[in-house]
Amino acid sequence: MTDHRLSEAEIKRLVMENARLNKTVQVLMDRVEQEMDQQQDSFTIFQTAIKLEETVNLRTNELSDLNTRLMTELAEREIIEEKLQIAKMQAEEANKSKTKFLATASHDLRQPLNAARLFVGSLAAAGLSEDNARNVMRIGNSLDALDDLLSVLLNISQLDSGGIKPRFCHFKLQDLFDRIVPDYMRTGEDRGLDVRMVPTSQIVYSDPRLLETILRNFLSNAVRYTKQGRILIGCRGCGENVTIRILDTGIGIKADQLEGIFEEFTQVHEDRSVGGRGIGLGLSIVQRISKLLDAHIEVRSIFGQGSLFGIILARGNVDQLSQPYAERVADVTPANSLAGRTIAVVDNDEDVLDAMQALLEKWGCRVISGPSADICLAPLITEDITPDIIIADYHLNGDDTGVSAVREIRAEFEGPLPAILITSDRDPDLADLLEQEGLPLIYKPVAAAALHALIQHLLNTPKA
Length: 464
Hints:
The chain is of the alpha/beta class. It contains 13 helices and 12 strands. Strands 1, 2, 3, 4, 5, 6 and 7 form a 7-stranded mixed beta sheet that branches.
């Protein structure tokens, strides 16, 4: 169907034509009046009147048609504006639903991850051997990486809209290599592969968390799609840039498929004897993150022989060096360091409660736990125990929240009780709410060292 709507330029032209026609009619009428005054010939006057009537009728019809078209156009525009308003409202509602879904998904997916992180924390305080302690640390690093990847997956729409802001800093690339490469060395060894790392002294300026997601994706694909041979990760500096490269002797990618590997839900490998059942999002996420980091991704591959994936970063400044992984590696806290303290824990997830109790008991705490404030209060009141601190998950059963649970427990005891809220919900409005309530916030998955430090801080802070 042909679109008969007028453009702004056409409407303006027609309005001007309308004015011109009106002016023409007036001129014609004035001219006739003048001629009638100057000529008394009745035939001439009659002839002029006929011509004038024809001209006036023609111009009147044109004017009427113009007005009709203008009214139709205005009516169509009103309808379009109304539809646009409806579409805008629907988009806003859809965005609210998406945000609510992502918050719920984030909470549900992070619950088992949080429990695993707490259990790892309890193991770290168990006086393990050096090898086992190193393995526990690697498990913790892998859980951190999984949480980072989960965050990116849940916020993939935010990556497109600019909702995720990178946190750039200057850091040693070797610290990042030491953090992630040993995991893939172990995995590669299990598959009969030789995974090697070339040590480096390079310093880069980037977001270490987002860069880690990219490198883990490259290494994971290299291990997954290499049947035999080796995988090498290293870097080199060139001018103001540092290039990280991962090379493998894997199955490679066909030349006509290289352009499509960064598209969502795309898997170009036809050899089902290697790899796994991925969903084809990894490299699309890499592409989004690389744009955030203003970093160029390079890819070269020979089908049947191997691939090279690289990323070009800005060189860092040694005088502004940061240590972004210092607090994440130091997850070992001394046993019985909180001996004699009573802590009330409210969480509606049984696995998380068990993990939190195991961790706190390693620190020497007495733990009173339950899925609601009522269940925690029962033994506290019965045994006349005042907790030293309250730890509550924000999302509980139904409409209950950790804020209401803290209020309910505090109401039974004299004086202010310190409390900590734990959540996987990254909504800034929630963070503002908890700040107004004076409730410290820790995001899931909970790092044992961060939790331990916050508890000690609250217990040592003088009560108001």
